[in-house]
Specification:
The protein has about 70 residues and is mainly beta. Helix content is about 10%, strand content about 40%. The chain is built from one helix and three strands, in the order βαββ.
């Protein structure tokens, strides 16, 4: 899984649905899921209201997998 989080601005259509001002601070998250052969299976791009988002991760050591971006 490749996950990328960037600071962004909320587009007008999404801001309206979330009752925000257009251009409010937002977080954009891109997630890409790969199979063992590094082929892309699915991807999602999501916007989050900057002050309504919390990222929690938990890491454990397992067998190393090749980086699909290489």
């Amino acid at each position: 899984v490749l996950q990328q989080i960037d600071a962004d601005l909320m587009p007008a259509d999404a801001a309206r649905l979330l009752r925000l001002k257009a251009g409010s601070p937002a977080l954009r998250m891109l997630r890409c899921y790969f199979d063992r052969g590094a082929r892309l299976l699915t991807a999602s791009a999501n916007l989050y209201v900057a002050d309504r988002f919390q990222l929690v991760t938990s890491w454990s050591q397992r067998e190393a997998r090749p980086d699909p971006r290489r």
